[in-house]
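Researcher: I'm preparing a figure for a lab meeting and need a structural model of a single chain. I don't have an experimental structure, so a prediction will have to do for now. The sequence is pasted below. Please return the structure as tokens so I can convert it later.
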Amino acid sequence: MKRLILSVLCVSMSTGLFAQINKGAMALTGTIGLNGGKTENTATFVPTGATTTTFGQKRSGFAFVPAFSYFFTDRIEGGLALAITKSTTTNDFYPPNVPTAQKEQKIESPLNGVGIFGNYYFRNDRNFACYGGIQFGVGSGNGKTTTTLVNGTSTTTDNKTNLSTFGFNTGLLFFVRENLAFNSNFGLISFNTTKTESTTGDNRTNSTASNWVVGVNGVIVNIGLKYFIGKTGGMAPPPPPSAPF
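Model: Understood. Here is the structure written out token by token.
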């Protein structure tokens, strides 16, 4: 998949397009993300070589982020983005035959949000544009954690999460058509605060977590499509022939 994306980008850079983003242009951006993973822990009794599975985990996630933006000047873009996300984690425990031991734990975490952003385009070349930007967003979601014991009884904890985030980012646009581009975006600096309220029966627990990230190591690059409406510069006129001497 990565090779396919890189191939398309290389083709787009050789088509001779010149995307000139002008004041008054509008753009629609859509990004879809999927992720998943699996973990399994085993223990081996060295004298006999017997192996026992002690823990297993499955993870899956989905994100859809549409956005609309408007170019207030030839270089400055401002816009509004929505985010619809959901992640699910299932933990499988393999405890001894103790009725009150945990057997399975399933965590469902939906989170929907809205954000505003602004980008400054500091380079606009033949086939690509570079930008840096700032963004702020808020989100919330109602999830739940279901814990099942060996004896079959289960307990459900309702989790209400509120999130606020602020950050700086940078990105590239690779144009494959006059008004269509691949958009790659990754964060440089980000700050976020998460407040969670968990309710199990008559018990309620509140927690607050703050995080910050500087640099791009370990940050997933988001890739999507950006469609321009209105005043794009379009195809550049062919360059004049070179002087014979």
